[in-house]
Amino acid sequence: MCELLHYFCDCELQHRIESIVSFSDRFVSKLQYNQKFRYNELMLALNMSAAVTAKKTKEFRSPPHEQINILLNFSAGEDCPCPVEIQDELKSFHEELRLHCGIPVEEEEEEQDTSIKGRLLALLYKIKGPPQKTEEEPAETEQAAPSKRLLTLLRKRV
Predict the structure, then answer these.
(1) How do the pLDDT tens digits run along the chain, 158 residues long?
(2) What is the CA radius of gyration of the chain?
(3) Which pTM was predicted?
(4) At 109, phi and psi to the nearest 5?
(5) Locate the Ryanodine receptor junctional solenoid domain: which residues (predicted)?
């Protein structure tokens, strides 16, 4: 039985990894195609000054890791050469992945506490969920048998 469960878990994990790799492959292909298209447009435009040409070709003269950072910098709200359709596709995939993993999608994040304590608490709340206030148990429950207390606690959690 355990081997069967391990097999199903391995198959599910393999499927998840394959879907992420497949999305990544399609996404990078679209980014590269768009980048090549923009580069060809720049090379065909001969009437630009040297300063404008240098500014527009900076992305293409950068090392690959800086190029991808420039393309994916749209989450910071900066001017990004990445088309809106590709940005939306990545955001959509990210939201679907978070929902599938059980991480709630936050519509708008409130002002965050940037202190170490605040960041650790935010991380803890993301993992365990926000703290829940416990209700005062009636006095009779305190004197009840241990099995009754256990049943009461289990009912509250469900």
Answers:
(1) 788 777 778 888 888 888 889 999 999 899 889 989 988 888 887 777 778 877 778 778 888 888 888 777 776 666 778 888 988 898 888 888 888 777 776 654 555 666 777 777 777 777 776 666 655 555 544 444 555 665 666 666 55
(2) 26
(3) 0.56
(4) -80, 135
(5) 1-152
